[in-house]
Amino acid sequence: MLLLGDLVPDFTAETTMGTINLYEWLGDGWGILFSHPKDFTPVCTTELSEVARLKPEFDRRDTKAVGLSVDSAESHLQWAGDIGDFSGTELNFPLVADPKREVAELYGMIHPRELETLTVRSLFIIDPRKRLRLSITYPAAVGRNFSEILRVLDALQRVDRFPISTPANWSPGQEVIVSGSLDDSEARVSFPAGVRIVKPYLRFTPDPA
Ligand code: BEZ
Q: What is the reported pTM?
């Protein structure tokens, strides 16, 4: 089982954009590796369409998306036309063909009591050091909220830049939480825009980004 902070497993696999090595393809940027159960199915079509539509948002966050299922590359390529029809955007990121379930096993994407042999809706955010920073697993019948994935990317990129964390339901532009590693005077130096102290352990500052 992959845990947060682990180095994610590297792999080389056939995709809709040719053979790709994950580490090389991600380079120094961020990545999202996500699985779907099956090509030519409704929820999956809406999900992949949404990721294609959001590509400019992922680009702005220096993040590349990679999809995966146990279908073949030929199947993925045929299905790509439907994704284009539905989203109005061509399939603009690679879809891994994993018919032998090699990558699926490496990443624990098969949950047999949910779907016996198909991948469930797993999603991994991978940082530039190839460390796992977020892992979510959704059931077959529930499509994921990719706005939430963008929100988590924004939060992770903030906490890597500043000594902060982000509160419940945070979105960019809202106050963030000052790290407990700074005392009040250090916090005021680090965050000249101001520090709002609610409790000694709960201090807010305007979004520093
Ligand atoms: C779907 O995408 O709609 C779906 C795929 C596999 C199982 C259940 C639903």
A: 0.97
